[in-house]
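User: Hi! Is it possible to get a structure for several chains at once, not just one? Here's what I have:
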Amino acid sequence: MAVTNIPTITPLSRTWTHEMIASEVMVLTNTIDNEQVQLQNIRNHMNSQISYLVNLLNLSISPWYRITLTARLDNTAHASGLDWIDLDTALGGIIPSQLLLDVKRLSVSPTPVATDWIGNCTKVDTSEITQLSSRQNVQWRFSICWQHTGREILVYCGDNIQSPAHTPASPATADYNVTTQNFVIWGTRKPVLDDLLAVSLSTTYKANVDVPDQYIDLLIKMTQKKVIEQRRELIPTALEQEVNQGLVTLQQQLANELQFEAAEREKRKYGNPQRVPGTV
Amino acid sequence: MINISQIISSVQNEIADISGERIQQGEYIDLLNSVAREIAQETEIYVNRYITIPNPAALLWTENTDYTANQIISYNDIFYLILVSHTSSLTNLPDTTTSLYTPFSTWVSGSSYSTNDLVVDNANFAIALVDHTASDSNRPSEVYGSVGVWGKLSGGIESIFDATLPYMNNDINVSGYRLLRVVRGTTDSLKECREYSNQAISSTTSGNNSFPVNWTQLGATEFTIQFVDRLNRIDGGLHLVFGGAFEANEICVIDFITNRPFGQPNLGISINGITQVSDTTALQKWLPTYNNTQNIPDFLENCFLYGLLYLVQQRLYNRGDDSFGNRYVQTKITFEKELRKMTAYAKMFKDNRSNLKVQPLNFLPEYYA
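Assistant: Yes, the chains can be modeled jointly so their relative placement is included. Here is the combined structure:
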């Protein structure tokens, strides 16, 4: 069945279009003709820099590029005998595996009927999921586990769960049935880039850029730097510093966020740190 | 009553795992079942009742069976009287072989019955003695009104001395471990039964005096226990051998303590053609689901909670989470304290409010009281 729903993606910038950024870069680099640097070159630089920037943002727990896809388990079993969700089957012209950068979570939503399985699936290692598929460990008989490998999500459905790839030994043990339930894939996506088509034909060139507004200035500087590099000119020290500073700030911010989140998670798991009374 | 899902949810909150990713669903079930078994063995309050009909009036028809004349069998939900002794086979099926089988019709008020008509009325098999018009006052199930109108038939084998309590029957694990009370008879006249030694009962059934010293003879309400059936086969059943045979459709009610605390033991089997009640309430699924309503008595709540919490914390500790080391020990102490408290409570519950009397499993003094 594969992915059954991909939400419409709205670019993240409120005002900045690709066209406006290209114009801004042209102004900043004094590109008044197209003999050295063509518009296509600038658009290419912009695309590569958007990808780079968004990848950095995605490394953090920044929520901007998160996406949820709805999927059903495929009708036939995977070669490994497990259930799976094929990410290569296109839906509305979009191939999910090309859209997704990473899969963070997998959960199952109710239909609802009495045999629904509801909750988060547990992410396990490849060796764990293949061993679980032997069904020798009965403590996982009500569990659903997953692993993102290649262009598919492998899903293990416990022994008491009916699924397309697994029928419980007897009807009496089919406590759950996920065959018709929706799986929700919580992942991060790649940014929507400029399609580089001719200006009159392009649907993206005059549309908003898929980067939050607070990072547009950094994006312009990074593109500007690329244009200067292309022209084999010396990059102004100030520009280089500003770009580096921007990236350092961004990375610093990401590191802080990661640390904060990790601390929060620790606190939730283990409670507030216990100290000997009197210590500071 | 508290739902078991509340206890699981509570433990999930205690260990900060509301995402359900640290302890898996099946793990909760298995851990909770082991807590339940421990509680059951400590308290012995899980009393189960097993009802059986050792000598049913109508046996299920089976192939390659020797039938004697006047037995009653059931085939495709219709009762038949066996006319001639024979060995059954697929070539002489009851519904097609009128020379061997005559069917019983269901008694209907207002019908005209002729002499020798066969009817079944509320499990009473009867033959019409006179031509008459049926009315509620002379129906076969009327004890007095049917006299002279209907002759009662019994298809029972009338030589069954033992009732079988499935104990460890292949995949069906009843795991009963102490009999509390055994009664037999018809539903309106049940008699208490007592346990005696193998020697006394075997002496009785062989026609000798039960107790050579005083010529006392035991009766139908005395039994002994053995693990083999009439043919000396170990079939996983606990066989109660009585001093007297079971009459047709006579029931035997066995109350016993089990270590299966959730619901009735799984008796989803058929004995002598009588389907036993199956267990539908054992703790199997993780909750919440829409339809699982597994409840436990209120006074067991803390015991279950701390028992489960202790096992869960111990498991997390064993997986390398050092922060649970101290905690699981503390929880274990609390659990054991709760267990003692509850055992004492359950003892009072049994001693003061229950009329069930525990009988020794093996021997009573060999005299007839």
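The first strand of chain B starts at residue 2 and ends at 3. Residues 262-282, 287-291, 352-369 of chain B have pLDDT under 50 and may be disordered.

User: Great, thank you!
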